[in-house]
Design goal:
- With about 650 residues, the chain is of the alpha+beta class.
- The protein has a domain of about 325 residues: Outer membrane efflux proteins (OEP) (Up-down Bundle), CATH 1.20.1600.
- It has 15 helices and eight strands.
- The strands form two sheets. The chain has a six-stranded antiparallel beta sheet with strand order 2-3-4-5-7-8. The chain has a two-stranded parallel sheet with strand order 1-6.
- A hairpin with a 6-residue loop joins strand 4 and strand 5.
- The chain is elongated.
């Protein structure tokens, strides 16, 4: 019995001794873990709360704070060597294609302005606006007057055998110089007119012409005006109106493209802000793991902790190091995406710069009412203006095709004046001739005419034939026709030899099926546009509701994430104190550190998501440009623009488009 009691007493002393060894030697480590808890608190509250309030934050650890582990560092210094686990814990900030020494500090507005000036999608859409403007000028060119001219010289020699041909032999040579001018033009009432000024000079060796050379001129004015079809609108006017509407649509599309690009820039900017903050949080987690590793190593050296606990710390360092590498990849992805939106040259110098956002991660509450937001979206959205322009185009088509179903009834008229002049030739019969055959032919024909007259005198039913009249002499031609080209034009503008005509021309198709089918199609398209407008209203309403809900959800996430982060900080501090007192294990300390890092990342993500939700809501309400302080002022040229040599900022709109 005594032996049994003695064994029991020994066991009690052994348990008491082991307990004393576990508690009292750990006292120095408790002070170190208190320092670690204070360092964690400093790292969490270095820059204040994310919404601007002075509280524990997810910003970086205060670099001005004293070293977290002084004794461990001094111990390593004394040994003259550094622990390889600690030495390899940090991840280099070097990235592919980036010079970390070159920094581009960029605010959100700077990024937006750079995108408007250099973004390739905006530049492409800007050229679409210019192309639409050129299309309008091209359509208006149908009313430009057209000038035509013909200058021609013609020389011909033809054989003749007729007795009255005037040929001195068996051929006549004629030289003709023609110089004609004309103007044709469409008029805005659907009609057209032409003005022709024709001139010629004719010289010949025929003895039958009294003027040789002879000048002739004429002015002919013709007009055609529709009275039914094409009176209210024709193809030319339809093309001009369509080009105006399409120019307006291209302006609307440019505005929509600018809004979308700005929204993408805003989202990319906040994604980069989050990526940089996430990288910083991951590096802080590595620092905490290193602190825990050093503390554990010191306790193992002091015999207070089992060596297996150090392996667990090493694993945690490597795990968090991997998270830093992944965060660094996220920084590169977000930064390249932003650069792709704000740069227009793949060889631009800014590609090697490290972007440093200057906007702080702040929570600025926004308040929107559903009814007001819906009214604002219905008023501002470019899609509704584009749909209105399409409806106007449809009304133009209906008007034009209805006009084409009418009969064609045109009023036509013309007015002409003529002039002539030349050099008089000698009388044919007052001069001797050496052509005996011609004289004999003329004598024989005169005898034949005399015989016919005798027959008619005997009451034979024949047409009376007058006797052959000799060729008049030169002095029988009026003086007003004797002269050259200027005499010809004087007679022309004297308006003594004029003529005019007027009338109507009608064309009635039997079926006109093509015009009726086109009209029916335009009416069907009008009903389709009504349905598209209803669908667009419903779609915009859905987008507004979703955007407001996303904004509210992001706000609630911020509140929840902030509370979770504060609780994680308290839990970590408590867990570290318990670990210093020997009441918990290393595993739970590392787990609390991971939870704090995750809570910090969630809070940063919630705030950046809130800012992105604000940007998305501005896009849905089409207030992005106004919120960013951007104004796109339209340019209204009065003449055909020059081909641009570079990018221009703003819209281009013809002053005839309203």
């Amino acid at each position: 019995m005594r032996f049994t009691n003695f064994g029991t007493v020994c066991r009690h002393f052994l348990i008491f001794g082991l307990t004393a060894l576990m508690i009292f030697p750990a006292a120095p480590s408790a002070a170190l873990f208190a320092q670690q808890a204070q360092a964690s608190a400093r790292g969490s509250s270095a820059k204040g709360d994310l919404d601007g309030q002075p509280s524990n934050s997810t910003d970086s650890i205060d670099e001005s704070a004293p070293p977290i582990i002084e004794q461990g560092a001094q111990s390593g210094s004394r040994r003259g060597q550094e622990d390889p686990v600690v030495a390899n814990a940090q991840v280099s900030n070097q990235r592919v294609g980036i010079d970390v020494n070159k920094v581009l500090r960029l605010s959100l507005r700077d990024a937006v302005v750079m995108a408007l000036e250099k973004n390739l999608d905006i530049a492409d859409q800007r050229f679409n606006v210019q192309k639409a403007e050129y299309d309008l000028f091209s359509a208006q060119g149908v009313y430009d007057p057209s000038f035509s001219s013909t200058v021609n010289f013609n020389s011909s020699t033809r054989p003749v055998f007729f007795i009255f041909s005037g040929a001195a032999g068996n051929s006549i040579k004629t030289d003709t110089v023609t110089y004609n001018f004309g103007i044709q033009k469409l008029i805005s009432s659907g009609g057209s007119f032409t003005l022709d000024f024709n001139n010629n000079r004719v010289s010949t060796d025929s003895i039958g012409d009294t003027l040789n050379p002879r000048f002739g001129s004429s002015i002919l004015f013709q007009i055609r005006q529709p009275l039914m079809r094409n009176l209210k609108i024709d193809q030319a006017r339809r093309s001009i109106h369509l080009s105006k509407r399409r120019l307006d649509i291209s302006d609307i599309q440019f505005r929509q493209t600018a809004i979308n690009i700005i929204n993408q820039v805003q989202n990319a900017y906040w994604d980069l802000v989050f990526a940089l903050q996430d990288e910083r949080i991951r590096r802080e987690a590595v620092d905490l793991a290193v602190v825990q590793y050093r503390n554990n190593k010191r306790r193992i050296e002091a015999g207070d902790l089992a060596p297996i606990e150090l392996v667990q710390s090493e694993v945690q360092i490597q795990t968090r190091k991997e998270a830093v590498i992944q965060a660094l990849q996220g920084v590169s992805t977000a930064e390249n995406r932003l650069k792709n939106l704000i740069l227009n040259d793949p060889k631009a110098e800014e590609w090697v710069y490290r972007i440093e956002p200057t906007e702080s991660v702040e929570f600025v509450p926004q308040s929107y009412n559903l009814e007001d937001a819906l009214a604002l979206a219905l008023k501002n959205r470019p899609e509704f203006e584009s749909l209105r322009q399409q409806a106007q185009i449809n009304q133009l088509d209906i008007k034009y095709f209805r006009e084409q179903t009418k009969p064609q009834l045109d009023l036509i008229g013309s007015y002409q004046t003529q002039g002539a002049s030349g050099t008089a030739t000698p009388a044919a019969f007052s001069q001797p001739t050496s052509n005996a055959a011609t004289i004999q032919q003329l004598t024989t024909f005169n005898q034949l005419i005399t015989a016919v007259n005798r027959l008619t005198g005997q009451n034979i039913s024949l047409f009376p034939v007058p006797p052959l009249i000799e060729r008049p002499s030169a002095n029988t031609i009026s003086e007003r026709f004797l002269g050259g080209q200027f005499r010809n034009w004087a007679n022309l503008f004297g308006n003594d030899f004029r003529g005019y005509s007027f009338g109507v021309q009608i064309s009635i198709p039997f079926s006109n099926q093509t015009a009726k089918a086109n009209l029916g199609r335009a009416l069907a398209e009008s009903r389709q546009l009504d349905l598209q407008q209803k669908r667009l209203v419903q779609s915009v309403q859905m987008e507004v509701r979703n955007a407001l809900q996303s904004l509210e959800s992001a706000r609630q996430r911020i509140e929840s994430a902030r509370a979770a982060r504060l609780q994680a900080e308290v839990q970590l501090n408590g867990e570290m104190q318990r670990y210093a007192a020997g009441l918990t294990q290393n595993f739970f300390v590392l787990e609390r550190q991971n939870q704090l890092s995750a809570a910090k990342g969630s809070e940063i993500r919630a705030i950046t998501d809130y800012n992105k939700a604000v940007a998305d809501l501005q896009r849905v309400l089409s207030t992005t440009l106004e919120s960013a302080g951007i104004k796109l002022a339209p340019n209204q040229p009065s003449e055909l623009p020059e081909v641009p040599s570079g990018f221009t900022f703003g819209l281009t709109k013809s002053k005839q488009s309203k």
